[in-house]
Amino acid sequence: MEHRKLIMITIMATLMFAMVSCSKWDDFKKYTADGETIYSGKVDSLKIMPGRLRVELKGLLSADAKIEKIKVTWNDKKDSLVFAISKTGRPETINKIFSVDEGVKNFNVQTFDASGNASLIVTATGIVYGPKYESNLFNRPILNAVILNNGNAKIDWDTFDTSTGAKGTWITYTTTAEKRTTVFSAIGESAAMLSNYKPNTTFSYKTIYLPVPTVIDTLYSVQDSRLIQ
C-alpha cells in the first residue's frame, strides 16, 4: 500500500513539473513569436570626455563585424546623432567628437547592423561646459603691476584658489616697438615679466582652466585689462 502511494506521488510531481515547464516555454515563445531576437554588438568601455559645447565619445566595438552605424541620443532623446563606422577589423576603437549644448547630459548609445538590428543600450553621463560655466570663472588677481627701471613691466600675482583647475594666465600687451605681444604665466609663478613694455598702455589678461583631467578643450575666464603708467 505504501509502495503504491509513493508511486502516485511521484507521478503527480512529474506531471506538475511538466506543466510548469510548458508554461515557462509558452511565456518564452511570446517574446520570440516573430523569430529569434537578434542583437547587434554593443559598445564596450563607453566614456564621455567633456569639452566646451562638445564632447568626445570613446568606446570599443566587439568582434561583431556586421556593425555599420552608431546612434547617440541625449536630452531625453530630443537630440541625436547617427554616424557610420569603418569596416576595419575588430575589435575597433571609437573616437567621435560632436557638438552638445551646455549642461550635464545622459547619453544613450546603440549600434546597428545592415539589417537594422540594434544592440542593447549603453548609457554614460558627461559634462558639457560653455559660456555659463565660464562666466563663473575668476581671473587671477593682481597684487601689483609696475614698470621697472630697465623698461620691463612686472606683474605680481595675488593668492588664488586653483582647486577649480586654473593653470595659468595669458597676457597681451604693447611693446615699445608698437608690437602686440602675448606671454603666458603659469599658475605656479608668483610674477610675470613683460619685456619692453610701452608706458601708459593697457595689457589684457585671461586665466585658462582645465576643470577635469579628461577635458578636451581649454576654458577661459572673462578677459580683464589694466593700465600701467
UniProtKB/TrEMBL annotation:
One Pfam family in the UniProt entry: DUF4998
Name of this protein: DUF4998 domain-containing protein
